[in-house]
Design brief:
This protein has 24 helices and two strands. With 577 residues, it is mostly helical.
Length: 577
């Protein structure tokens, strides 16, 4: 084999040569060679999927295979229908990997429909393929926020896998364990941690049974892939127990993860990369003693639970900042569960830690589109802060201000605009008190709260009050921007666009051009866009202002504003990124 070439690349090269030869043959005699070409493209697409740099080529090959199989399946025969189902299922997986979530969901849904038809024909092995396709569809549904539908599909897959386990030989237990693990993880993502733990424990137990059954058969040792899946599910069970505050029960699962990793390393050192990446993604790694524990220690290792709650909050917000909002929400939900256990002791520190965690969780859930859950978390944070404000006003007042401001936003997003005015007004009052005592720390928060109150008043048709509040917000944002241009730029842009909207609402048309043009000019120097920034709303505001300016005869300003709105849409974070 030439230097630098691996068996994988050799297989890919051979598959590419086969596809090229079959393309030529199919061009000359399509009736004879189309089916062979479709199969060769399916194999090539599957091989390319293993190379992160060639995902695009993989999707092209799988899409072409699906197209060929679709044409061949017109006559209703079994083999082309199976080929089409396989191609679509693998295509959906690839689309999910590259973040094209809606396309992945639609493709996975079609694959499941095909596998249902194939099962009805009693084709051997089709029920197992249907179960795999259901899990894939469940994952794609979850990625597009349709968590309850995802649970239904994965739950169906579990029942199919359960029925396929051979009661004598135990064959099929590994696949059942994998489906149970997926179910447990999805339940955890929805905050249903007790149910999640039940499914995850069942998955780990089934993996153990699969291992015992495999050892009883000649050559039945499990592969490194199943060992890694077993370790991942045991790790999920350990984290779920930790999140519930049951750290002692989590220890054997962490030990099991370490033992499985050691077994994988002994067989195939490179195969630990997936597991190590998973551990690191949740802030865990190998300890000096060879076990698995949090990087830097923490409650999962038996230390101070408040320290672990703080670590999880820091990590969750960092994940959200990087755009990984679903993983951030999962991390903060773990912190909230740990916080509830700590707060049972009713110490002020533990209650404050829980309230802060709930506030952060509400923010991140809102950024990920989980609106009802975001409102629930924000509302609970507000109630906790109110109950304990008198106990430690200096500590709790800043947190209460954040929480009521967030509560107003959560209510507004759900269409409860009049209900949102009271918490937004309270947030401004609290931030005024805080900014009077410590302007450097709280004037920025006051400016943001004023801007939010202006929006809440507008949505409640209180336009004159909204304009007055927004003018205050802009004045304060200008002062802050002069002091710290880079940090304060996004807030000033939002405030200026809102001021233009408020002026238009009260029919002061001649004054709309100024703040709009200033916002557009400032946008050109805005580099990054934080996940919490309501980019869609800002782009929509600018698009409306462009229309308004065009209607008023300000054609050049309208063109610049429309261009800024379109550019903002392109720069906005994409779903799933």
């Amino acid at each position: 084999m030439p230097h630098g070439e691996t068996p994988g690349t050799d297989r890919t090269g051979e598959a590419e040569r086969t596809v090229a030869a079959l393309r030529r043959a199919a061009a000359a005699d399509p009736g004879r060679y189309r089916a062979e070409l479709a199969y060769a493209l399916l194999e090539l697409g599957s091989l390319l999927a293993g190379d992160p740099e060639r995902h695009g080529e993989s999707l092209d090959a799988l899409g072409e295979a699906a197209g060929l199989y679709r044409g061949l399946a017109v006559d209703g025969s079994d083999l082309p229908l199976v080929g089409l189902a396989v191609a679509l299922d693998r295509q959906a997986l690839g689309l999910g990997v590259v973040g094209r979530r809606e396309e992945a969901r639609a493709t996975a849904l079609e694959a499941v429909g095909l596998w249902r038809r194939i099962v009805e024909r009693h084709i051997e092995g089709s029920r197992g393929e249907l179960a795999a396709a259901l899990v894939n569809l469940g994952n794609q549904l979850a990625e597009t926020g349709r968590h309850h539908e995802a649970l239904d599909r994965i739950g169906e897959a579990v029942e199919i896998r359960r029925s396929l386990v051979d009661p004598v030989s135990g064959a099929g237990r590994g696949e059942l364990a994998s489906a149970l693990g997926d179910l447990g993880i999805k339940l955890g993502e929805m905050g249903r941690r007790t149910e999640a733990l039940d499914a995850l424990r069942a998955a780990v137990g089934t993996y153990r049974e699969s291992e015992a059954a495999g050892r009883a058969r000649p050559g039945g040792t499990r592969g490194t892939g199943e060992l890694a899946e077993h370790a991942a599910v045991a790790f999920a069970a350990a984290r779920t127990l930790t999140g519930l505050g049951r750290t002692e029960e989590a220890r054997p699962y962490f030990a099991e993860v370490a033992a499985l990793r050691a077994e994988i390393t002994a067989r195939e050192p490179g195969a630990t990369a997936f597991l190590d990446h998973l551990l690191a993604g949740h802030g865990y790694g190998l300890t000096r003693e060879g076990g698995v524990g949090p990087e830097g220690g923490g409650a999962a290792a038996g230390a101070d639970p408040l320290g672990e709650i703080d670590r999880l909050n820091v990590r969750g917000l960092a994940l959200a900042d990087s755009g990984q909002v679903e993983l951030a929400a999962e991390t903060l939900a773990e912190a909230a569960a740990l916080g509830r256990t700590a707060a049972a002791g009713r110490t002020l520190g533990s209650v404050v830690a829980l309230a802060r965690t709930l506030h952060n969780l509400g923010l991140v859930m809102a950024w990920s589109g989980r609106r009802a859950e975001a409102l629930e978390a924000a509302d609970e944070a507000v109630h906790l802060c109110r109950r304990h404000l008198v106990d430690a006003p200096d500590t709790v007042r800043p947190l209460l201000a954040e929480a009521v401001d967030s509560l107003g936003s959560r209510l507004a997003v759900l269409g409860r605009h009049r209900d949102a005015v009271a918490p937004a007004t309270e947030a401004v009052a609290l931030y005024r008190q805080l900014a009077h005592t410590d302007p450097a720390a709280y004037e920025g928060e006051l400016a943001r709260a004023l801007n939010n109150l202006g929006i809440r008043l507008t949505d409640s048709d209180r336009h004159a009050e909204a304009l007055a509040v927004t003018e205050q917000a802009v004045d304060l944002h200008r002062r802050l921007h002069r002091r710290d241009p880079e940090t304060q730029l996004p807030g000033l842009v939002h405030a200026l666009s809102n001021l233009a909207l408020r002026l238009a609402r009260v029919e002061r048309a001649g004054e709309v051009v100024g703040p709009t043009a200033e916002a557009v000019r400032l946008l050109r120097s805005l580099d990054g866009i934080h996940p919490s920034s309501d980019v869609a709303a800002l782009a929509e505001s600018l698009a409306w202002l462009a229309w308004y300016l065009r209607k008023g005869g300000h054609r050049e300003a309208a063109r610049e504003t429309a261009r800024a709105a379109e550019e903002l849409r392109r720069r906005a974070p994409k779903p799933g990124r």
